[in-house]
Specification:
globular; single chain
Length: 247
């Protein structure tokens, strides 16, 4: 039985992905900052571990407790919205600490076992805003673009060891906490010079049209892990697929 370690499993894409792999007879190490076993079905193939991706000791403990794994899914992250000129640097650092540095740190902790066994897959979940920019999420987008670049170089480095690295790029989803997180972290959104952009951004979260479901992301991650011929970048969700196609 193969084992996957997934970060950020308390809700949204991470939770759906953990359930998806469990349903397909994988052993799942579901990690979250505050472990809650009641979020997932009872299964002898499930372990729920504490993992804060911004804490190196927490990463070390979780990876050590997980033991050998076959796939790593870096999903943990959050969003924040603000005009770039108004976003506090503390929030910018928090975005990069979680979305970028956290992904890199967890990957570094897992790679030695993949390289030694000459097998393994790293899947990094970023965002469709790296395909088409939208206003008021400059720092968030930058944190995700950095992961894209990291992953593409990582894939080249790992080729000699038969280890793959790839990206899943979700679109707008009503099933995640992104909009709530973006609102709660928003700064300077009463700045009248940006009033129309602010109105447009938050209207976009609620507007009808193509969206990304958590199931879409789980399926894309499954494909990335199990199909060695899958592309480096896999858009997840109808809207993300449209953007990737240039529509």
């Amino acid at each position: 039985m193969k084992t996957v370690l997934i970060t950020g499993c308390s809700s949204g894409f991470g939770l759906a992905t953990a359930k998806y792999f469990l349903d397909r007879d994988w052993a799942v190490v579901a990690t979250m900052r505050t472990p809650r076993e009641d979020l997932l079905p009872r299964s002898p193939n499930l372990r729920v571990l504490a993992l804060d991706v911004t804490d190196r000791q927490s990463i070390h403990r979780a990876v050590e407790a997980a033991g050998p794994i076959d796939a790593l899914v870096n999903n943990a992250g959050f969003g924040a919205a603000s005009p770039a000129e108004a976003m506090p640097m503390s929030t910018v650092r928090e975005l990069f600490d979680t979305n970028t540095f956290g992904t890199i740190a967890v990957t570094q902790a897992v790679l030695p076992q993949f390289r030694q066994r000459k097998a393994g897959v790293v899947v990094n979940v970023t965002s469709s805003v790296t395909l088409r920019s939208i206003p008021l999420v400059a720092a968030y987008t930058a944190s995700k673009v950095a992961v894209n670049a990291f992953t593409e170089v990582l894939a080249l480095e790992l080729q000699p060891f038969n280890v793959r690295a790839c990206l899943v790029l979700p679109g707008r989803s009503p099933e995640t906490r992104f909009s709530d997180s973006a609102r709660s972290h928003a700064q300077g959104l009463d700045h009248e010079a940006y009033a129309e952009q602010v109105k447009s951004l938050f209207a976009r979260f609620a507007e009808p049209g193509p969206v990304t479901t958590a199931q879409d992301v789980a399926e894309a991650v499954w494909r990335a892990v199990n199909d060695p011929l899958s592309p480096m970048r896999i858009p997840a969700g109808a809207d993300a697929i449209d953007w990737a196609a240039g529509n």
